[in-house]
Amino acid sequence: TICDPSSLNAMESCNHTCWVDCVEGNDYGMTPRQRRNRKLYQLLSTRHVESSTARHLNAEFGEEQFTIRLVPKVLHCIKRYSIDETEDSSTPLSITFELIKSWMMPELFEHH
């Protein structure tokens, strides 16, 4: 699969090394990691436009106790993936703000 936007894990498992000639959106100067980052960031941006990032993360990671440990890693990934963002993507600060106001923050600060 070249692009499966059903979840972050599905997107991570996609093929980031191939492209199709004569198709708009191919960037031949990018490494597979850069393509992967761009796909993941585009997925986060799309979810952000719909204000559904937290809902999707809860569905993918669950709302269990261990999920709290993922919050800092997810916030860091937003910054890391944004390096390869496209011009029409949401800004990393905007996505981060959405998550801070809606995803696991009360739980995170309960367990300091």
Strand content: under 5%
Could you report the average pLDDT, rounded to the nearest whole number?
Answer: 78
Unreliable stretches? none
Radius of gyration: 15 Å
**Individual helix count:** 6
Shape: globular
Order of helices and strands: HHHHHH
The overall strand count is: 0
Largest sheet: none
Helix percent band: 55-70%
Look at the helices and sheets and give the structural class. mainly alpha
Distance from first to last alpha carbon = 41 Å
A few lines on this structure:
With 112 residues, the chain is mainly alpha-helical. The chain is built from 6 helices and no strands.
Characterise the protein shown here:
Helix 2 crosses helix 4. The chain is mainly α and 112 residues long. The protein starts with 7 loop residues before the first helix and ends with a helix. The chain contains six helices and no strands.
What keyword list fits this structure?
0% strand, mainly alpha, 6 helices, 112 residues
Write the layout of secondary structure elements.
Layout: H1 8-12, H2 32-49, H3 53-61, H4 70-82, H5 92-102, H6 105-110
Helix pairs in contact: 2-4, 4-5
